[in-house]
Amino acid sequence: MEKREVTDLFLYKYMKIVDETIINTIENQVDQEYIFSKGFEEKMKKVIREEERMRLNVLKGIARKVAVLLIALLGAFMAVTMSVEAYRDKFFSHIKNIFEDSFVNVYFVENEVEVFEEYDWEYIPEGYSLFENNLNGNTSIKIYRNNNGNLIVMNQQLISDQSQIYFDSEYIKEENILINENMLTIYFYENLYKCAYYEDENYVFILNSDTLNIKEIEMVFLNLKKK
Amino acid sequence: MIYLMLIDSSEEKRKFVLLYEKYQYLMMKIAKDVLRDNYLAEDAVHESFIKVAKNMKKINDVDSIKTKRYLITITKNTAIDMYRVQDKQMKREVYVDEIEGISDGIVYNEANIENEVLHVLTNLPVKYRDVFLLKYSNHLSNSEISNLLGISEGTIRQRIARGKKMVEEELAKMKESDDGKTGSNGPLFI
Fold first, then answer.
1. Cβ–Cβ of B7/A56 closer than 8 Å?
2. Are A114 and A224 in contact (CB under 8 A)?
3. Cβ neighbours, 10 Å, residue A10
4. Which residue of A27, A162, A207, B125 pairs with A196 in a disulfide if CB–CB is 3.0 to 4.6 A?
């Protein structure tokens, strides 16, 4: 009896066709009308958000393009309701648009400052050293890292008219601390993750960390100085 | 201007969201075929996406057969693991293709030698076919297949060798049958 030899080459040729046929058959049987439970949708949102945050902590020694701010704004999560609160302070104002799982500060500036003046973050928490420093137009982003690979991201942003900053609204709690006559707001998220937001006359400052406590964050902003 | 800064791979994140939007139903079908329960199947899909998120470097083209096979394999294995936990009396290995008979109804349009080959390969026992698909269609190494399926590399090599032998024997039988030596089985496919 003559046997046809089945070699790797033989299988490379045919298995691709078999694979495609099987997958096409499966896909034709998929129920596209299935409605996932609310619990599943919520869990998947968290997976997507966590995927974002995990990237904060992945250090591979490669140069980064930009540092992280907060959030995950995805086209899949559309606004269900919106409400608007207006704040009128400083030389810019902003309104806060609230969506289902995020909120957006939209800024309005009448007389824009043209020259970006970088501030000094004079207090750096113990154990952290500068890992990356990006200055780009009207944005300064400094990333500090400790030996455990934890990151602190410090961002200074010159506000321009109609600019927007997105925040994840699913924080556990919020604390406000008055620093140099301006309010520092700290948002607490799962897994000890915190986002601190601060404004002065022309700039917005945002700090992200999953290790710093309130006192350390407060010290960072108390020692934020114009050069 | 939307101001959104992402570390390293906004591309990867976008890819992950795309995978979720495109394949959640496919993965749900795979999971449900094993688990027969919507809630358990959703748990399996959720767990599978967590695994996918940790292995985004392995995903290139979101629409490719390779990506779909990868997602199907991850989901199937996750669902099988959950099935085993749910039913500890289950001793034998479980394959979703066996449960659902997914290989049933697959036909190739013309009766010719190529289609005989495809028929044999499609109808291999699933434990051999899965390994063949991952190695020869997805181009995974034995080590990668071992990690994905949770079986040893030795077992992978064994299945490849036995699978090949099985295909050779089946093709030989078909040839004998075509030659009329053992009687006609009729055309295999319409």
1. yes
2. no
3. 17
4. A207
Q: Among B175, B113, B121, B166, which Cα is nearest to A11's?
A: B121
Facing B25 at nearest CB: one of A23, A31, A66: A31
Quick check: A6 and B118 CB within 8 A?
no
Sign of the CA dihedral A71, A75, A81, A86? positive
**Is A18 in Cβ contact with B122 (below 8 Å)?**
yes
| Interface pTM, i.e. ipTM | 0.78
Contact of B6 with chain A, judged by CB distance below 8 Å, is answered with yes
Angle between helices B38-54 and B65-86 (to 10 degrees): 130
Average pLDDT value over all residues in chain A:
76
Euclidean distance between CA atoms B31 and B45, whole angstroms? 7
Chain A interface disruption, residue of B1, B2, B8, most A CBs within 10 A: B8
The b-or-e profile of B22-50 (16+ CB within 10 A means b, else e) is: ebbbbbbbbbbbbbeebebbbbbbbbbbb
* CB contacts < 8 A (A, B): 166
User: Whole-prediction pTM value?
Assistant: 0.54
What tokens were used for B187?
């055309």
Residue with tokens 């108390």: A222
DSSP annotation of A202 reads: S
DSSP of B87-109: -TT--S---HHHHHTTTTT---S
Say if residues B5 and A141 touch (Cβ distance below 8 Å).
Answer: yes
Residue A179 phi/psi, 5-degree rounding, is -130, 120
Largest CA distance in chain A: 93
Nearest residue, CB atoms, A165 vs list B3, B6, B132: B3
Q: Do B46 and A157 touch (CB under 8 A)?
A: no
Amino acid at A109: V
As a whole number, the mean pLDDT across chain B is 79
The answer, for B178 touching chain A at a CB cutoff of 8 Å, is no
Residues 38-67 in B contacting A (C-alpha not used; CB under 8 Å): 38-39, 42, 45-46, 49-50, 53, 65
Question: Which is more confidently placed, B17 or B99?
Answer: B17
